[in-house]
Design brief:
heterodimer, A: alpha+beta, Rossmann fold, Elongation Factor Tu (Ef-tu), domain 3, seven-stranded mixed β-sheet, seven-stranded antiparallel β-sheet, B: alpha+beta, Dihydrodipicolinate Reductase, domain 2, Ribosomal Protein S8, Chain: A, domain 1, four-stranded mixed β-sheet, 8 helices, 18 strands, RNA3'P_cycl/enolpyr_Trfase_a/b (chain B), nucleus (chain B)
């Protein structure tokens, strides 16, 4: 009866009690200001100070965030930790949480949609240091996994240090394996200690998650849900390096090299490779160089934007507060086995569980299975399908396209494809094209044809990309046979011209996104002016005639255009026409004033003439040609008044001018009074003319502005005053707004031309001449990162850095020892020289880095912008014991030469010594050398200072020197000088991704290491060997003071040398005989001493006896204790063995390497 | 790898801005066919001299001039700045040499203090007055202003020169993004008339003539007569007038006219004043001769859209825009400033800055 559980308390839902309770709650709501009001002035002051302080800590340096708001790239979430800690399990659990799909094997990045405005890319970082460095450079959020039952491991600390030097992303700790700790108290204690350690590494209060056991190969759902909630609300602050560089985490990788080439070169040829991924950071522009860490700098062949494989939900689902269930299923993981399909580097594998037949339609299929089934459904081959197809060139055409002979097939096909693409992309564009066709021929001229040519070529370049976008992110490989221009005779050129329907990009400036049908590619066409009507009419005519009256016809066509005023499209003229600048600018002139038509026409047709011929006249001048100041129009009042509006005295021509300060207008008015009266009248007249209708509205606007200004100033002067921080933020927001507005409505290509590819877009980057090892040894578990390089970072130079040895690295670093440095995107080995600033006079070389202090290092390598952080390693292989980060620091300076010096002492010996002058030899080799050092300070070992004076005729290199005192012949004279040293130009990129065993990269070894590995002995220089120093004993002559002087000296200064006494003294000569009493006394003393001796000896024996007994006893006890200890140890080892066995079973044969932390 | 990265050009035109772009972007540049068809082929003395000047203000620059002098390969080093003294040949004036230096100096390692001697005013290049009153203020909206100074110590007219100019330029970390689309209206005109080794009356005559033309447009007109005497007036006689018009928003337009032998000062004044009016009429926020400078600074700005309204691009500008694309990969978007107004030739140039950071600058 008693052990039945008590009924739980249920709070009243209604009635008086419930009302009462609610009332109480209501009271507690809100802030009771009175309760927290300060009671004393001092307290109020303190509170105010604290609030102000808290306000300041809230502020951060305003940074522009280059990530677009509307379509941001996925957030890169890296899961990092030592092997066996549960990284894959966590990724699987998280992917399952977001997409409700279970991935069997996770390789490479996995992108999922996590919210309406957020996507996440999960990437598991393996335990390799190179991977950790690369991941640390791109991860936005790091889930640092810690084995709760084991504690922190070295890799975790290494990783945190890498993060620190490359910009710290957000870090969340995840404690796993907590189920292995049985005792509750131990668990609590472990959590506490680990949390404390974690907090000291990250910051106080850093978030740490606890994951208990594994269920069904995943972590418990509610714990994962908590974690995912944290991830989804996380805010990110832009990191400086990532905010200035574009980068991409590669999620797909393909080799495009022709198979045949690979076969003939046996796989050792350089490859052409495409990589795919979401752009992050800043805009990636055309022509930008990229670096793939682990490979090297590579040049981009082409970039194209693809359709988003994992798109964010669009406006249709925008109205919901939550993400719809359908969207939750999206997952993009080309390297993993999503839906049973694995995209490998050169193949697609469809994973079919069990067996399946086509028959059972009822069952649901995965993506891969459906693909295979659909393949089975195909009834005829591709060319049959093409032959039967009814593709029309334009939407309005009545006849469908026919597959004709093989020569025209290619061209037609291409056109078709263009068209299909257009139709698919935007229906409007197709309509545009139709318009263009109708406009054919009546609005065209020379320059536009050229544009067409260029744009056609552009079209060609674009084609693969746009076809790829159709395929939803996958390229369709096409073998395009191009009709060579020479093959299709020039007679056919006419046909081609007729085909070309050119968009008049020049006529209408807003419309520059038109597409053109393909024209002939021939280079010679570039300068043949063509008009469609002419070309069409002369379709069948022979070539010479066609060419003969070409110029005149073109001229007449041009004349017809001159009448109309038209505006040039500067963008296409400058960037895509082959015209010279002179032609472009003078063309403008001819279009503007029709007077000098003939001249400019002639000029138009002299393109082929080399411009250098008349170079005599062409000066590279800054001043332009003088304007026509002589002409009569400058006397013409009307002309002069025509641009009066450009001056402030000219009256207001438009409403916008009103805004720019009433004081200027007032000033102008005021000064008008001083000027001639006629001016005032004219100005006034203009103002009147400006229209009485506008005047009223303008006046109203002005009044409004004035009123606002007054209100601001009068009502609350505080609000109008903005502090620096808000001002900066405002400025940034405005600039971002401007950026967005400027390119709004611009078509995709112009946008790519002007600003490159935006972060957040899914792009395909084609890379040329990639080392074949990258493809051969590709492993999806090692992340590939594409980092964009700024123009300055492509260069090499001497980089000066501030460096500090890491305090966990045991040894000091030595000058000229190779060091692996991770800086910017790159990892490379180089040879630094360490130095310290010596009293701001010189940069002095250091042989070793100082303990606990920063010093400078200078090395040759790729340039990074000053203020870039880096970390350095001695050895990045996995086999290294201990802490691998040897130093960290920051870039200070970039230069082409250094001024590091080391001390050198030149020594010489006196050849002849005069009073204060000595001739010194053996210091220099020639008189010329001496001449260089004339006036240099020298010193003897004994400290006598002197100066080099002049070279002696003989022997070579000897010189005269003066000293402050007489030097000895035996003295050594030395000259302290400074010798400038340059770092060795050694740069060796860490090419870890090219290896089959990616962790085993080893760069240049130290000489000692090479000798050890090769089993070589150190060559012994016989001069370096230590021999016994044999110095002849130096004999000093006795000091002799002349007798005369001795006599003159006072007694205290006189030498007091006494000879030893050689005769025996009186006492020595005598023998001693004792008296009987004395004898007795001596005997007694002897006896007493003997007794005492005996007593002491006996006492010692006794003590020894006692001690030995005690020792025996102690030994016995010790033996007993040892036995007990042995038993205990045995027990412990058995338990530990069991545990490791369990762990090994869990990891399923994965090698687990653990290195215990030192600290 | 290195060879692929070289920018290649031919011809002697646009020599200086190609060198400047090479130094700023770090890309080597190969220019060949320099007057190869000419009777007197190869580089001229002033071009060699400008190379020498650029070598002085940089560190680690390698210049290889071909055997015939018709080709040159420049591998740019680091722009170092510091104290530099340079003597110009008498074939070009100081403006020719100072223009590229003005483009480079803000991105040097140390502030530049350049002492340069030669002809201060001639009819081919910008005179030192224009450089001081127009070119340097054009850098101000980009955040290069504190310590930017041009001191004219001595003047030197055309054939023999003898002038001396001190150019001081501070170092910046990054230039600001320009957003300058409102040309405003001209609010004041300033001018400097100088006459060296001729009667001082001449400058007053120029001022009077110019006043008579310009006064009808604006009353805020100050023309000063800048007199240099004795040692400071150079070795040859000459006189010139340079005019600057400033708008309410700070847009500058300038003109200049130089004496010709046998001419009268009134003609010089008329030429300068009328050409100033012509420039004002062309419109834009930036003076015609300084389009390149402004566009370069826009390219080097932070990764934001910079906008500037200008008159029609000149030939130099067109070629410069093409070269910028080769060196920095930046293309400009050029659209008419007033699409509804067919008479308006002004264009709005906008581009996304490259986010160029002065990597030469020393930290701490």
């Amino acid at each position: 009866m008693d052990d039945r559980p008590h009924k739980a308390h249920r709070a009243a839902q209604s009635g008086g009690k419930a009302v009462k309770k609610d009332k109480g709650k209501e009271k507690q709501k809100g802030n009771n200001e009175k309760a927290f009001a300060p009671k004393s002035g001092r307290k109020a002051e303190r509170q105010g100070r604290r609030n102000a302080e808290r306000d300041q800590t809230r502020l951060h340096v305003p940074l522009v965030n280059r990530t677009p708001d509307e379509f941001p790239p996925p957030i890169i979430v890296a899961v990092v930790g030592p092997s066996g800690v549960g990284k894959s399990t966590l990724v699987k659990s998280l992917v399952r949480r977001y997409t409700k799909q279970t991935l069997n094997e996770i390789k490479g990045p996995v992108t999922v949609v996590s919210g309406k405005k957020r996507r996440l890319t999960f990437i598991e970082c393996n335990n390799d240091l190179n991977s950790m460095i690369d991941i640390g450079k791109v991860a936005d959020l790091v889930l640092l996994m810690i084995d709760g039952s084991f504690g922190f491991e070295m890799e975790q600390f290494e990783f945190l240090n890498i993060l620190q030097s490359h910009g710290f992303p957000k870090v969340i700790g995840v404690l796993t394996h907590l189920d292995l700790i049985r005792k509750q108290a131990t668990l609590r204690a472990t959590k506490k200690t680990l949390k404390k350690r974690f907090w000291t590494e990250i910051y106080q209060g850093a978030k740490l998650f606890y994951l208990s056991g594994v269920l069904n190969g995943r972590y418990p759902d509610n714990e994962i849900q908590n974690l995912s909630r944290f991830i989804s609300v996380m805010k990110f602050r832009p990191l400086v390096f990532r905010n200035t560089h574009p980068y991409m985490l590669v999620d797909r990788f393909e080799d495009l090299t022709p198979r045949e080439e690979i076969r003939t070169s046996k796989g050792s040829c350089d490859r052409t490779v495409t990589v795919y991924g979401y752009l992050c950071g800043t805009n990636l522009r055309n022509g930008m160089k990229i670096h793939i860490p682990g490979v090297n700098d590579l040049s981009v062949k082409s970039i194209s934007k693809l359709g988003d494989p994992c798109p964010l939900p669009n406006t249709e689902s925008e109205k919901r507060r939550k993400l719809s269930e359908k969207k939750k299923l999206l997952v993009h993981a080309p390297m993993s086995d999503v839906g049973g399909v694995i995209y490998d580097k050169d193949a697609v594998y469809v994973n079919v569980p069990g067996n399946f037949t086509k028959g059972n339609d009822g069952a649901a299929h995965g993506e891969g299975e459906e693909m295979v089934i659909r393949l089975q459904d195909a009834e005829d081959t591709l060319d049959q399908a093409v032959a039967r197809s009814q593709i029309r060139l334009f939407g309005s055409s009545s006849k469908e396209l026919r597959v004709a002979g093989p020569s025209t097939l290619a061209e037609d096909e291409e056109e078709d494809e263009d068209d299909i693409l257009d139709d698919d992309d935007e229906d409007e564009e197709g309509a545009d094209e139709d318009d263009d066709v109708s406009e054919l021929g009546d609005e065209e001229d020379e320059s536009e044809d050229d544009e067409d040519e260029a744009d056609d070529m552009d079209n060609d370049d674009r084609l693969p990309s746009s076809s790829a976008s159709l395929g939803g992110g996958r390229t369709i490989k096409r073998q395009r046979q191009r009709g060579t221009p020479s093959a299709s005779s020039l007679g056919q050129a006419g046909v081609d011209f007729a085909d070309s329907d050119s968009d008049l990009g020049g006529d209408d400036d807003d419309d520059d996104g038109g597409r053109w049908a393909r024209d002939m590619d021939g280079e010679d066409n570039a300068d043949i002016p063509s008009d469609d009507d002419d070309a069409q009419s002369e379709d069948e005519q022979s070539m010479p005639r066609w060419k003969a009256n070409l110029a005149s016809k073109a001229a007449s066509a041009f004349d017809s255009h001159v009448g109309r005023k038209r505006r040039k499209n500067w963008v296409s003229l400058i960037y895509s026409s082959p015209l010279t600048p002179t032609q472009i600018v003078s063309g403008a002139d001819s279009a503007r004033d029709g007077d000098d038509d003939d001249a400019s026409d002639d000029e138009l047709f002299k393109i082929k003439r080399p411009a250098t011929l008349d170079s005599d006249e062409q000066w590279d001048m800054s001043k332009d040609a003088p304007d026509d100041v002589k002409s009569d129009r400058w006397e013409d009042e009307e002309f002069l008044d025509s641009f009066r509006r450009l001056f402030i005295t000219g009256g207001s021509s438009s409403g916008q001018q009103l805004e720019d300060g009433d004081e200027s207008a007032a000033e102008g008015d005021f000064e008008d009074l001083e000027a001639a009266d006629g001016d005032v009248e004219a100005g006034g007249a203009d103002e009147m003319d400006a229209g009485s209708g506008d005047a009223a509205t303008a006046l109203a606007a002005k009044k409004e502005a004035l009123k606002r200004k007054f209100d601001e100033q009068y009502d609350d002067p505080e609000t109008s005053k903005v502090d620096f921080y808000d001002e900066k933020k405002e400025e940034m927001a405005q600039q971002l707004q401007l950026n967005k507005a400027e390119l709004e409505g611009v078509d995709e290509e112009t946008r790519a031309l002007v600003e490159g590819y935006r972060p957040g877009s899914y792009v395909r980057i084609e890379l040329e001449s990639v080392p074949c090892e990258l493809v051969e040894n590709f492993d999806p578990t090692y992340p590939i990162i594409v980092g964009g390089l700024l123009p300055s970072e492509e260069r090499f130079g001497l980089v000066q850095v501030r460096i500090k040895r890491h305090r966990w690295f045991g040894k000091p670093l030595k000058t000229n020892d190779p060091l692996v440095i991770s800086m910017g995107w790159r990892r490379f080995q180089t040879v630094p020289i360490y130095s310290l600033d010596d009293h701001s006079i010189r940069m002095r070389m250091l042989k070793y880095t100082p303990e606990h202090m920063h010093c400078y290092a200078t090395f040759y390598g790729p340039v990074s912008v000053p203020n870039t952080g880096f970390c350095a390693f001695n050895n990045i292989s996995d086999a290294t014991k201990g802490f691998r980060i040897t130093a960290t620091g920051v870039v200070l300076d970039i230069d082409r030469s250094t001024s590091i010096v080391k001390k050198i002492k030149l020594t010489g010996v006196p050849m002849k010594v005069f009073k204060n002058t000595a001739f010194v030899k053996d210091m220099f080799n020639s008189a010329l050398e001496v001449a260089k050092f004339e006036g240099a300070n020298i010193r003897t070992v004994s400290g006598i200072r002197g100066q080099v004076k002049k070279a002696l005729a003989k022997p070579d290199g000897a010189f005269r020197a003066t000293f402050e005192d007489k030097v000895l012949m035996s003295d050594i004279i030395f000259l302290r000088a400074w010798y400038s040293i340059q770092p060795r130009k050694f740069y060796n990129p860490v090419t870890s991704l090219l290896l089959s065993d990616k962790g085993s990269w080893s760069g240049m070894r130290l000489t000692g290491q090479v000798r050890r590995d090769e089993g070589l002995k150190t060559p012994l220089n016989s001069n370096s060997a230590y021999r016994k120093v044999e110095r002849p004993g130096r004999r000093f002559n006795p000091l002799k003071i002349p007798k005369k002087l001795q006599a003159a000296l006072p007694y205290s200064s006189k030498p007091k040398l006494m000879k030893a006494q050689h005769r025996q003294t009186y006492a020595q000569k005598r023998a001693v005989i004792l008296e009987p009493e004395e004898k007795k006394a001596v005997a007694l003393l002897q006896q007493i001493r003997a007794l005492r001796k005996d007593q002491v000896a006996r006492r010692k024996d006794k003590q020894e006896e006692r001690r030995s007994a005690h020792r025996k006893k102690v030994a016995k006890e010790e033996e007993k204790r040892m036995d007990k200890k042995k038993e205990e140890r045995k027990e412990y080892m058995r338990a530990a063995g069991l545990k490791t066995k369990r762990a090994a079973e869990r990891e399923e044969g994965r090698t687990s390497k653990r290195r215990k932390t030192q600290s | 790898m290195a060879d692929k990265n070289i920018a290649k050009y031919s011809g002697h035109q646009h020599f200086r801005h190609r060198l400047v772009l090479s130094f700023l972007s770090g890309k080597p540049v190969l220019i060949d066919g320099i007057r190869s068809e000419d009777k007197n082929p190869g580089l001229r003395d002033y071009e060699v001299n400008v190379l020498r000047l650029l070598e002085k203000i940089t560190n680690g620059t390698v210049i290889e001039i071909g055997y015939t002098g018709t080709s040159i390969l420049l591998r740019p080093g680091v722009i170092s700045g510091g104290n530099v003294t340079h003597d110009c040949p008498l074939s070009r004036s100081i403006g020719y040499f100072l223009e590229p230096v003005i483009m480079l100096a803000p991105f040097a390692k140390k502030p530049l203090h350049l002492t340069i001697r030669g002809i201060t005013t001639d009819d081919r290049d910008l005179s030192v007055d224009t450089l001081r009153t127009v070119t340097l203020p054009h850098l101000e909206p980009f955040g290069i202003s504190d310590g930017l100074e041009l001191k004219i110590k001595k003047r030197g007219a055309a054939p023999l020169g003898g002038g001396e100019v001190h150019f001081l330029c501070p170092v910046v970390k990054q230039v600001k993004t320009l957003n300058f689309v409102d040309p405003g209206r001209i609010k004041r005109i300033r001018g400097i008339a100088h006459a060296v080794r001729v009667s001082p009356q001449i400058s007053n005559r120029m001022i009077d003539t110019s006043r008579s033309i310009l006064n009808r447009f604006i009353p805020d007109l100050y023309l000063i007569s800048d007199v240099y005497k004795g040692e400071d007036s150079g070795k040859s006689p000459g006189y010139a007038l340079s005019l600057v018009a400033e708008s309410t928003t700070g847009a500058l337009h300038c003109s200049e006219a130089v004496s010709v032998p046998g001419g009268v000062p009134e003609d010089v004044a008329i030429a300068a004043s009328r050409s100033l009016l012509a420039r004002i009429k062309r419109g834009g926020c930036v003076d015609r001769q300084h389009q390149i400078l402004v566009l370069l600074m826009m390219v080097l700005g932070s990764e934001d859209i910079g906008r500037c309204r200008m008159g029609e691009p000149t030939e130099r500008t067109v070629q410069f825009l093409r070269d910028v694309r080769d060196f920095f990969g930046t293309s400009f978007n050029i659209r008419p400033a007033e699409p509804s107004n067919p008479d308006c030739d002004e264009q709005i140039f906008s581009c996304l800055g490259t986010g160029y950071v002065n990597a030469n600058r020393t930290l701490g």
